[in-house]
Amino acid sequence: MSAPALHLLSEGFSPAPAPCAPALEGGRLATVERIRDWAAAARRGRAGDLDRACALVGAPGAALEDAHGAALLAALASGCRTPLRLHRRGDAASWDELWLIRLLERLAAGDEASARFLVARRCAPKAARRAMFLAGRLADLAADA
Asked: What is the pLDDT of residues 4-58, one digit of tens each?
């Protein structure tokens, strides 16, 4: 059985930003960097058992957010119809990173219908429920911070 696919572009390749990609500022730029950190943790295997990560409730704020973020990226890696494309730190945001930002923003705004649509377009139905739960917890944690 092959490992879930989380792809970082090779060290020698630095794509130019797409002409229609929105410029990232402040909070969105910080979110992209957090997503990349969570992906690195998921690749290192720190996401652990996804069910255990979903059950975390008593960890300190940053540790809880990191655990849920790594679990979300691991769940998406195993449940997305196509592999996520995440760029290296400092590079322009990929469309998958922008998709994750939109998902978290929609949940933070209370727009669950749009969030479900975003997840349904990318994830198999079995993985969509877990992805929605983890993304919703991340949005809640960000709102509490």
From this structure: 445 444 444 344 444 444 556 667 888 888 888 888 888 777 545 555 555 555 5
Pair 91, 12: CB distance under 8 Å: no
Q: Is 93 domain-assigned? A: yes
The verdict on residue 110 lying in a domain is yes
Q: How far apart are CA 127 and CA 134, in angstroms?
A: 11
Paired residues of 40 in beta bridges = none
Task: Tell me which H or E stretch contains 93.
Answer: none
Q: Which amino acid type is present at position 74?
A: A
- Number of structural domains (the chain) is 1
* CA 11/CA 6 separation, integer angstroms: 15
Q: Is residue 61 part of a domain?
A: yes
Whether the CA torsion 44, 48, 49, 50 is positive or negative: it is negative
Range of 117's domain?
A: 25-144
User: 99-128: per-residue pLDDT in tens?
Assistant: 999 999 999 999 999 999 999 999 998 889
What distance in Å separates the CA atoms of residue 111 and residue 109, rounded to the nearest whole number? 6
In a domain, 18, yes or no: no
- Measured at the CA of 99, the angle between CA 49 and CA 73, to 5 degrees, comes to 10
